[in-house]
Specification:
Blueprint: H1 2-18, H2 25-40, H3 57-67, E1 72-74, H4 83-100, E2 106-108, H5 116-130, E3 137-144, H6 148-151, H7 157-171, E4 179-184, H8 197-207, E5 210-215, H9 223-239, E6 245-247, H10 255-282
Parallel strand pairs: 1-2, 3-4, 3-5, 5-6
Helix pairs in contact: 2-10, 3-4, 5-7, 5-10
Length: about 280
């Protein structure tokens, strides 16, 4: 564990140096929160809770408590559910809310692997690249990896990734005949979901086809897109003789994606309102 931590620390330092000293994740998430607030209207306020950087969950709970909302909707920025991402983030919120005494009706937005706005934004960015492809190519739909030992415990993540991929392919105007789901960001010696992006890049080189790659589990730009996809995998593609390597952007603040998030939030708040009369009627 010490050796892995030391290696990760060294790699992380190099990554952030490449990014100019810090990750753009917070700034990009703030932009998404601002866009979502604008889409929802004045009755809503969006707070950011991050797991590994400020504002941490404890800070977000304190800020929400001070604002005194009537109800809370928890919206993970993970379209596909995994116990390691959305699940752990939601658990951290509930534990911290209980610790700080935040007593407020709270609900969780469901996973949204095929939400129409999310899919439309993804497909739109991919179509812009596919429209310019004039040579043989393969579309790679890349998602963050997950150890197989977690999948074997029943984690629904890979099935939801596959559902996102199928929905994206169906939504594309320039539908490719050659496409593949693959996984990135593997760390450590455990067996992970596959095929890996590395394997698919090498296969594309052997087949002599170009690559259009699109991240389908990340919703904003950060180290895994700006460094891993844009630099590391591009270098691998060049070394493997891949004719070209084009990367689609994340959905970010695309209005279609933001509108989809707003629909999810409104659906949850409307469901909470619908529950209140029944709760009142059931009270002694």
């Amino acid at each position: 564990a010490w050796l892995i931590a030391r290696q990760r620390s060294r790699v992380a330092g190099e990554i952030y140096a490449h990014l100019g000293g810090s990750s753009p994740l917070l700034a990009n998430t703030e932009a998404q929160a601002g866009a979502l607030e604008a889409a929802l209207g004045l009755e809503y306020r969006c707070f950011i809770a991050m797991r590994y950087w400020h504002p941490l969950t404890a800070e977000a709970v304190a800020a929400v408590k001070a604002w005194r909302p009537e109800e809370i909707v928890l919206l993970p920025l993970y379209p596909q559910f995994s116990t390691t991402t959305a699940g752990s983030s939601l658990a951290a919120w509930h534990a911290e809310a209980q610790r700080q005494g935040l007593a407020c009706p709270t609900c969780e937005a469901p996973p949204y692997p095929t939400e129409p706005g999310f899919i439309a934004a993804l497909a739109g960015h991919i179509d812009e690249l596919l429209a310019d492809v004039a040579r043989p190519s393969r579309l790679l739909l890349s998602a963050h990896g997950l150890p197989l030992k977690i999948v074997r415990k029943g984690d629904p993540y890979p099935e939801q990734i596959e559902s996102t991929a199928a929905a994206v392919i169906d939504a594309l105007e320039h539908r490719p005949a050659d496409w593949q789901v693959c996984y990135q960001s593997r760390v450590g010696p455990l067996a992970w979901l596959g095929p890996s992006v590395d394997e698919e890049i090498r296969r594309a080189g052997q087949d002599g086809v170009g690559i259009v790659i699109a991240p389908i589990s990340f919703v904003s730009e950060h180290s895994e897109t700006l460094v891993e996809l844009d630099r590391d995998y591009r270098r691998l593609a060049e070394s493997c003789g891949v004719p070209f390597y084009w990367r689609a952007p994340t959905v970010g603040t695309d209005p279609r994606f933001i509108a989809g998030l707003a629909r999810l939030v409104r659906r949850e708040t409307e469901a909470q309102l619908a529950e209140r009369p029944r709760e009142a009627a059931a009270s002694p």
